[in-house]
């Protein structure tokens, strides 16, 4: 089943083309890597996949099974794109609980579980604004993983993580993959791409080239 379909998608910012005429499909249950130099358009590609950015021309179609009941917004998507998004005045636990209330699928126990799995051991009273870069990255990832989403879109998920934390996040990615989730992540590290992905999208001068790696 195709989860996300791009048909002739182009993205231009103030007359500057970032992506040109991209046609691709993201198939359920597969793990994709997105590679390319700084500024190639990797984050823009991920943002287009979940509607955070709209195409300048062409269309992005999300399978209706992955849309909310009004068929408007992606549902069961876990997204960590463009650096950590956090509420500076709340602790990790408090803000994940706030976010969890929106969909009401999980509660405190699951929030605590994901923080433990990701290894974010901030003191409860410490506010996110005082977190280190790696802690903020873990918070962003915890938010993406916490509802066990069917689709994960992760922009450079291993950035700023120490070795042990990187292994924890890789374990989480493997676990979601085994559970049948569809995963797309960007990385500048060939080893992560080799280890985790079935297919790789390489962005080159606005074009997206696909390389099948396995399966
Ligand atoms: N909101 C925006 N307004 C204007 N230009 C933008 C916007 N978002 C992205 N761009 C431009 O689109 C291009 C691609 O940016 P993008 O963040 O996708 O690159 P990237 O491949 O993720 O790079 P990096 O490896 O450095 O993270 C860049 O030239 C960037 O300046």
UniProtKB/TrEMBL annotation:
InterPro entries according to UniProt: AAA+_ATPase (IPR003593), ABC_transporter-like_ATP-bd (IPR003439), ABC_transporter-like_CS (IPR017871), ABC_Transporter_VariousFunc (IPR051782), P-loop_NTPase (IPR027417)
Keywords: ATP-binding, Nucleotide-binding, Transport
Pfam families linked to this entry: ABC_tran
Residue ranges constituting the ABC transporter domain according to the UniProt record: 4-215
Domain of life: Bacteria
Molecular function in Gene Ontology: ATP binding
PROSITE patterns: ABC_TRANSPORTER_1 (PS00211), ABC_TRANSPORTER_2 (PS50893)
Protein name in the entry: ABC transporter ATP-binding protein
Species of provenance: Luethyella okanaganae
